[in-house]
Amino acid sequence: MICARCLPVVLLLLVPGAVYASDGSTPLRDPTRPLHFQAPSKGAIKLQLQAIYNRGSHRQAIVNGKLVSEGEIVDGAKITAILENRVRYSAAGSAGTILLRPHISNATP
What we know:
Layout (H helix, E strand, L loop, with lengths): L6 H8 L34 E7 L2 E6 L2 E3 L4 E2 L2 E6 L3 E6 L2 E6 L2 H4 L4
Antiparallel strand pairs: 1-2, 2-3, 4-5, 5-6, 6-7
């Protein structure tokens, strides 16, 4: 026999997949998801900037674990500029910027 306190949990486990509005037309929004959350598109390029090196007037960066210079391509994105704490890139007709984490770029002794 199922106790009265356990019944709501058991009923939730029996509901398959998404929960729909009472009229069955639209799925309900997950109340735990942030309001402006958007799942990344499948074709999105994911770049991670790990470090920036200054070698005189020449800067290099480590992006997705690879040492790159301006003009090189990493995982489908062309590195267009390496600045003090960010890297600009272009991919699939759009441009973007990746930043170093603030606690790395603004470290003070």
